[in-house]
Write a structure and sequence with these properties.
By secondary structure, the protein is an all-alpha fold. The chain contains 21 helices and two strands. It has a two-stranded antiparallel sheet. A hairpin with a 5-residue loop joins strand 1 and strand 2. Helix 2 crosses helix 7 and helix 12 runs antiparallel to helix 18. It is globular and about 55 Å long.
């Protein structure tokens, strides 16, 4: 126990450095720069992007790619709509105060331009691997676009290891904790069930993952949002005051109240940005790995679809969770993570705790599926296709380990690895901004 506590403290310090002011400036600054360079495309083309993502579902099978636009979006959403929306938002508010949600919004809005740019580059520089599947993402646009293969290798290494944190242990740990709290089921049993369920899908590769997430993600998002929307509508008269309170707390220190220890503005910003990025993954470089598998000839079409992922994840789902916490006045109870969200839903509606628990199980399971694909594509870049199956098997085993691991240590490891894998990706995005702008102009000039 002493060793684990010491390790937790060390990793926590490294994570604090990784998510210090330089990283916050780089992440949000890159989003602002891309927003400026693309002339606010995420705002002017949002409705068109939502149409492509959610309404125009007919795909051309003749176009190169492994999965449809919709399946690529659902695979990316499966990896982002997860514990970040339930446990992550609650953790941000429990530590940084309600104002942390505001900084999640900022991260999400500028992150839409980041996610768009990542997808443009992912599709443009993707390749067909030795198994006949599409492979793309930051490692390829760093190597083939920026001509820095060593930087691509750095990203691939960080992503292949980070997948065991953000996309594996954090997810199974949160599920085990929630199931144990609600149904008194042993974390070990939960871990075993998750291991078997994960193996049943990921061993079939991206096409099976795409089919499963294409079916599962819309159902799970609608299920969770229905519960949150009920609580928001019941308290509709208090929503304007809650939104004003969130904005006020974002720009002023939050005083201690109840079980809340108080928060500085810097801590509020750090928690909001860190959990915002953890939730929507804009700037991390993970989602473009799924975007590269989409059936499309145009990088722009998939990029527009991809940027709706951040909008749905952060601006819609995270906001609903945050509003529930504030409207039910449970944010200052002293609880954190999934436990806090469970308490809030339980107070807000009959059976609310079950909605959170079941939602968390579905969210986390789908996240595990998506992140295994990200990790295996990264390890494939480093070691070749022969390394994919061993990676999948180890990934399945670690799901079980995460279910019984210490929560604070898991979160700290995840935060640290997120920061490390974001650095090479953001360097690539900044250096290749002219390529993104050029591709965008060619597409829309051709359309009009």
């Amino acid at each position: 126990m002493e060793f684990m506590s010491t390790l937790d403290a060390i990793v926590g310090k490294i994570g604090a450095f990784a998510w210090g002011p330089p990283m916050l400036i780089l992440l949000v600054g890159t989003g602002f720069w891309l927003t400026f360079s693309l002339r606010g495309l995420q705002f002017t083309k949002l409705w068109h992007a939502l149409y492509l993502a959610l309404i125009k579902r007919k795909e051309d099978d003749a176009e190169p790619g492994d999965i449809t636009h919709f399946q690529a979006l659902m695979t990316a959403l499966s990896a982002t709509v997860g514990t970040g929306n339930i446990a992550g938002v609650a953790t941000a508010i429990a530590i940084g105060g309600p104002g942390a949600l505001f900084w999640m919004w900022i991260t999400g809005l500028v992150g839409m331009a980041t996610k768009y740019s990542e997808a443009v580059l992912a599709v443009k520089y993707r390749i067909v691997d030795e198994n006949g599947e599409m492979s793309g993402g930051p490692m390829y646009y760093l190597a083939n676009g920026l001509k820095k293969p060593w930087l691509g290798a750095v990203f691939a290494f960080c992503a292949s290891v980070a997948a065991f944190g953000i996309g594996n242990m954090v997810q199974s740990n949160s599920v085990a904790d929630a199931v144990h709290s609600t149904y008194s089921i042993s974390p070990m049993i939960t871990g075993l069930v998750l291991m078997v369920s994960t193996a049943a899908v990921i061993l079939g590769g991206i096409k099976k993952i795409g089919r499963v997430t294409g079916f599962l993600v819309p159902i799970m998002v609608a299920f969770y949002m229905a519960g949150a929307l009920y609580i928001i509508l019941v308290n509709a008269s208090a929503v304007p005051a809650a939104l004003a309170f969130i904005v006020k707390q974002a720009i002023s220190p939050t005083a201690a109240v109840g079980g809340f220890a108080g928060s500085s503005i810097m801590l509020c910003i750090r928690m909001g940005v860190a959990r915002g990025v953890f939730s929507n993954e804009s700037g991390l470089g993970s989602a473009p790995i799924a975007a590269a598998a989409a059936q499309t000839k145009s990088p722009i079409t998939q990029a527009l679809v991809s940027m709706t992922q951040t909008f749905i994840d952060t601006i819609v789902v995270c906001t609903m969770t945050g509003l529930v916490l504030v409207l039910t006045d449970t944010w200052s109870s002293g609880a954190t993570g999934a436990e806090l969200t469970t308490i809030a839903f339980g107070k807000g509606m009959p059976g609310g705790a079950h909605i959170v628990t079941l939602g968390l199980v579905l969210f986390a399971y789908s996240t595990i599926l998506g992140w295994c694909y990200y990790g295996e594509k990264s390890i494939e870049y480093l070691l070749g296709y022969k390394a994919v199956m061993p990676y999948r098997l180890v990934f399945v085993l670690v799901v079980g380990v995460g279910a019984v691991a210490k929560l604070s240590l898991v979160w700290n490891i995840s935060d640290t690895l997120n920061g490390l894998m974001a650095v090479p990706n953001l360097i690539g995005l900044l250096a290749l901004t002219p390529v993104v702008v050029s591709e965008t102009k060619k597409y829309f000039n051709g359309k009009g």
